Amino acid sequence: MAQELSEKELLKMEVEQLRKEVKNPRSPISKTGKEIKDYVEAEAGNDPLLKGIPEDKNPFKEKGGCTLS
Question: How many other β-carbons are positioned within 10 Å of the β-carbon of residue 14?
Fold first, then answer.
């Protein structure tokens, strides 16, 4: 699609996108970083990567072994 557009049309699209982005509300990283940290710490107890998955609920656990007779 980009090949079909002229350079002028591409620049217009870029300007339109920049106009949209400049309207986005901004927050200082000092505030946002603290909010992210608090959220991560609050949800850490529910994170299976941190606390692990119980053996009975692990979908990847082998269901049985191979037996040879």
Answer: 10
Report which DSSP code applies to 2.
Answer: T
Strand, coil or helix: what is 49?
Answer: helix
Strand, coil or helix: 12: helix
- For residue 66, pLDDT over 80 is answered with no
Nearest-CA neighbor of 40 among 50, 55, 28? Answer: 50
Q: Both tokens of residue 27?
A: 């927050």
Cα 5 from chain centroid (whole Å)? 32
pTM higher than 0.70: no
